[in-house]
Amino acid sequence: MDNRDFSRHPFEPTPDELPPKPGYHFSLDRRKFFQLAGGGLVVVFALRDLVSSGEEIAASQISSSTPTEVNAWIHIAEDGTVNVYTGKVEVGQNIRTSLSQIVAEELMVPLTSITMIMGDTDLVPFDMGTFGSR
Predict the structure, then answer these.
(1) Pick from 110, 71, 117: which is nearest to 90 by CA?
(2) pTM above 0.90, yes or no
(3) Domain locations along the chain
């Protein structure tokens, strides 16, 4: 019989297998950040148009890194509620739930504080539409 240690889970990493701790530390916590942001905070997302040739890719990287179109935005209210505005719509793939979960996880807020505003042409940025894969 061998002397292996069976007290720990067989897939649990040993301390020397764990990645090093990050070398940075933020002293500003989330609550202080929201107090400093004031009544609300808007985060804007933009995606570049996809290009096909290598020359177009190189030219786009040289010309400007500033996005030209807004595809979605997030408003974080003073009370901690989060509104996500997007031109995409729910067409059966459960995107409303998955997008809500992504935002809640990234902002470290409860899922119940997320409200998705999707496809409302009076409120959301212009979007070319929601398309299926087939």
Answers:
(1) 117
(2) no
(3) 29-118
Q: The tokens of 24 are what?
A: 């940075």
pLDDT digits (tens, 9 = 90+) for 47-80: 454 444 555 555 555 555 555 666 778 888 888 8
Q: Give me the half-sphere count of Cα atoms (radius 13 Å) on the Cβ side of residue 20.
A: 3
Distance between CA atoms of 24 and 70, rounded to whole angstroms? 31
Strand partners, 86: 72, 118
Nearest 5°: phi and psi at 16?
A: -75, -10
- Rounded Cα distance, 22 and 59, in Å: 35
CA pair distance 69, 1, nearest whole angstrom? 67
Distance (Å, whole) CA 92 – CA 98: 12
Question: What Å distances lie between residue 1 and 4, 5, 8, 37, CA to CA?
Answer: 9, 12, 18, 63
Residue listed under structure tokens 């979007």: 127
CB neighbours of residue 5 within 10 Å = 5
